[in-house]
Write a structure and sequence with these properties.
single chain, alpha/beta, six-stranded antiparallel β-sheet, 10 helices, 32% helix
């Protein structure tokens, strides 16, 4: 592999040989986008098995996302950045992350070759954990049943984690994306176990918020982001501190109806954060975006939106989600 890129988690990316120290791990395979509560059950299984056997708990990821490889013109709405995913995996107790390049070689590799040469050969895994919907190899020809058959014939155990559901709804990354696309960030947080967030560097804007008395920090939207336009109550993480605020995503129809922008107003904060990295956690949707007759009408509505956001955040501050 290209080399270790984290000082805490052992993270390897690229192609090539892995160090002997991480061979024999208990391995989970998947994209794990969002690391929702269904993923947590699977990954907890990996950690428990690894600890019981004195092994390392490892996760194999793929980059780019296979859908982006096959359809590069259609950006995938990713729930987590690679950095966010690493932080979540580390918090769960994962020891090693192996990121394989999803390239022509891997896309054309038969499922049997992937199991025998990569998992059992290069990695020499001691146990494999996958979800019920894990399909792999050329043409998605590999299934959990095939994986079990090949691995077990060579003395390696496989655990297939069945769907994890609550209230009749199976936890899935697709379901979370659907909720976020509808503005239901509260429902998405219940599925994820944490507030979904966007991270980035504060960029310059049109300064219209400042003119209205609500100076905002502007963030570029991640590629493929499908968050519904509107006003949200948010937490803003900056330099190890958490602030409360309100965020606007939309086309500013009162002014120019241009490209979508994400603007965040931090409550009770003063200071210039241009060029600084922040993370915006979306707590609850307040209202959809809409046009107003003039700037004064919009200013009155923004004040009401901020009051509502404060009310929501005051109640959430006592809950378990962060």
């Amino acid at each position: 592999m290209a080399g270790q890129i984290s000082t805490k988690l052992e993270v390897y990316e690229g192609g090539g040989a892995l160090p002997d120290s991480i061979k024999g791990a208990v391995l989970a395979i998947g994209n794990f986008d969002g690391l929702h509560r269904g993923h947590r059950v699977l990954l907890d299984t990996v950690v428990e098995r690894a600890r019981a056997g004195g092994r390392k708990a490892a996760v194999m990821l793929f980059e780019p996302h296979p859908r982006e490889y096959f359809h590069p013109q259609k950006p995938v709405f990713r729930l987590t950045t690679f950095e966010q995913k690493l932080a979540l995996l580390e918090s769960i107790g994962i020891d090693v992350v192996i990121q394989l390049p999803f390239d022509a070689r891997l896309a054309e590799m038969p499922a049997e070759t992937f199991v025998v040469d990569v998992l059992l050969g290069e990695l020499a895994v001691s146990h494999i954990v996958v979800g019920y919907d894990f399909f792999f190899g050329k043409g998605r020809g590999g299934s959990p049943a095939l994986l079990e058959s090949i691995a077990k014939s060579r003395g390696v155990g496989v655990t297939v984690v069945e769907p994890v559901a609550e209230g009749g709804e199976v936890f899935s990354s697709s379901a979370v994306r659907g909720k976020i696309a509808e503005g239901d960030v509260k429902g998405a947080a219940e599925d994820l176990g944490y507030f979904w967030r966007i991270s980035g560097t504060v960029v310059g804007g049109a300064k219209r918020g400042t003119g209205l008395g609500f100076p905002t920090a502007n963030l570029a939207l991640p590629r493929g982001c499908a968050l519904a336009h509107g006003i949200y109550a948010v937490h803003v993480h900056l330099a190890g501190q958490r602030f409360e605020g309100a965020a606007y995503l939309g086309t500013r129809p009162t002014f120019d109806n241009g490209l979508p922008v994400l603007e965040v107003f931090l409550f009770d904060f003063s200071g210039d954060i241009y060029g600084r990295a922040i993370e915006v956690a979306f707590v609850e949707h307040i209202r959809p975006d809409r046009a107003f007759p003039d700037g004064d009408s919009l200013k009155v509505q923004i004040a009401a939106d901020c009051a509502k956001a404060r009310q929501i955040l005051a109640a959430v501050g006592k809950g378990p989600l962060r």
